[in-house]
């Protein structure tokens, strides 16, 4: 007799799910592993949510297309509302996009390392990621990514794959999408605005600029999304990082109106609840508070990089609310929680911090294993991090 899981698609049973950062229920833990904003939601957001609750309308469905929020997001970037889509976090935006573009056997092109959710979303659909290694300086190899996109995209990206029955040649996979995560995660590095725009112009298919951390840098291309000059450019972002709404789950996509209209068919009905729409609108309108918080995070980032440098840490010159840094001097003796020896200085330092209730992110591997990704928290939290890192050194 079959086991219950035998009815699950084989490709789902064979895949590894996305691994989010640890969420430990311990008030003493300093949580610097998931790039959340160290500030709570602003008073304006509190007031808006209180008012919504007093109106007592949660028994009614929310506006199904988040029209007011869509309009506000589009206007924020100087675009008309028909170029905007709202999702339950930018992760749902990616899910909608991938479901609309990819079939089994297709590929997306992106850099490696980058956001590790992309492979999970492609595998669910039977597609995969063509990952192009970053250069020695950790910047994306955009020419190599562009060459990969051109291979197999001689026909328009919107046309179906065609195979002749008597053709002995094996066609290159269809590649409808390239993703440039900017700033990139986990490296925190940015690609120049002109480089992204030139890529989008030369790419024969679609280009997505994933700008989850763009507010902390200076290379956003959001205002160009779906424009006459860049009709195949899409840009997505989130309210989780700069707007302190990671728990609210709201993201956005900007693209050509024809693309938005098609993606809206795939979006779940009522995907954004009433309170989240209210909170996101209030946060978006509170730009003065947003700028103040970004300035504080940038100052704290600079402090952290400088203090870690004094200890011998080598930090990439990123522009995000996190840093990618390598502890000094590889050495033996570090242990994992199971007692096995740690394989890299990054893993050793990760365990040292975790034992002292500071959570950061470590990505095993030949390129990333010696590094840690550390979210920028409050000044007090980063001072504690530096003190514990000094113990490690």
CATH architectural grouping of the largest domain: 3-Layer(aba) Sandwich
Report the major sheet: 7 strands, mixed
Strand order of the largest sheet: 2-8-7-6-5-3-4
Number of strands: 12
Number of helices: 12
**Class inferred from helices and paired strands:** alpha/beta
CATH homologous superfamily of the largest domain? Type I PLP-dependent aspartate aminotransferase-like (Major domain)
Average pLDDT rating: 90
The coarse silhouette is: globular
Oligomeric status of the shown chains? single chain
Summarize the helix and strand pattern as letters.
HEHHEHEHEHEHEEEHHHEEHEEH
The CATH C-level name of the largest domain is: Alpha Beta
Keywords:
13% strand, seven-stranded mixed sheet, 12 strands, single chain, 2 domains
Which secondary structure elements does this structure contain, and how are they paired or packed?
Elements: H1 10-14, E1 30-31, H2 43-55, H3 67-76, E2 84-87, H4 89-101, E3 107-112, H5 117-124, E4 128-133, H6 142-150, E5 177-181, H7 193-202, E6 206-210, E7 233-238, E8 251-254, H8 257-266, H9 274-285, H10 287-310, E9 314-315, E10 322-326, H11 345-355, E11 358-359, E12 372-375, H12 379-392
């Amino acid at each position: 007799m079959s086991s219950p899981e035998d009815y699950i698609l084989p490709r789902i049973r064979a895949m590894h799910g996305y691994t989010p950062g640890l969420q430990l229920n311990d008030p003493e833990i300093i949580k610097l592993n998931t790039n959340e904003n160290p500030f709570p939601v602003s008073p304006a957001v509190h007031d808006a949510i209180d008012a919504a609750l007093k109106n007592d309308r949660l028994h009614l469905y929310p506006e199904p297309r988040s029209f007011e929020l869509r309009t506000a997001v589009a206007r924020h970037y100087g675009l008309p509302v028909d170029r905007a889509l709202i999702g339950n976090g930018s992760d749902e935006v990616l899910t909608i996009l991938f479901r609309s573009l990819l079939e089994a056997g297709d590929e997306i092109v992106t850099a490696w390392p980058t956001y590790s959710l992309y492979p999970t979303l492609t595998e669910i659909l039977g597609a995969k990621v063509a990952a192009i290694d970053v250069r020695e300086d950790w910047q994306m190899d955009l020419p190599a990514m562009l060459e990969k996109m051109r291979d197999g995209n001689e026909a328009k990206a919107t046309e179906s794959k065609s195979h002749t029955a008597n053709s002995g040649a094996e066609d290159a996979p269809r590649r409808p999408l390239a993703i440039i995560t900017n700033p990139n995660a986990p490296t925190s590095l940015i690609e120049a605005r002109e480089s992204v725009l030139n890529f989008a112009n030369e790419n024969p298919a679609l280009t997505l600029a994933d700008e989850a951390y763009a507010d902390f840098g200076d290379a956003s291309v959001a205002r160009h999304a779906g424009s006459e000059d860049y009709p195949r450019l899409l840009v997505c972002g989130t309210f989780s990082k700069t707007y302190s709404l990671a728990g609210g789950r709201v993201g956005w996509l900007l693209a050509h109106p024809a693309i938005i209209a098609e993606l809206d068919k795939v979006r779940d009905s009522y995907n954004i609840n009433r309170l989240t729409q209210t909170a996101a609108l209030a946060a978006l309108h509170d730009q003065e508070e947003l700028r103040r918080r970004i300035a504080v995070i940038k100052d704290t980032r600079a402090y952290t990089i400088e203090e870690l440098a004094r200890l011998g840490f080598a930090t990439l010159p990123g522009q995000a609310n996190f840093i990618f840094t390598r502890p000094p001097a590889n050495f033996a003796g570090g242990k994992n929680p199971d007692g096995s020896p740690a394989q890299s200085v990054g893993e050793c330092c990760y365990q040292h911090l975790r034992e002292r209730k500071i959570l950061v992110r470590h990505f095993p591997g030949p390129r990333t294993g010696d590094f840690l990704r550390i979210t920028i928290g409050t000044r007090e939290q980063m001072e504690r991090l530096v003190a514990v890192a000094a113990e490690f050194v």
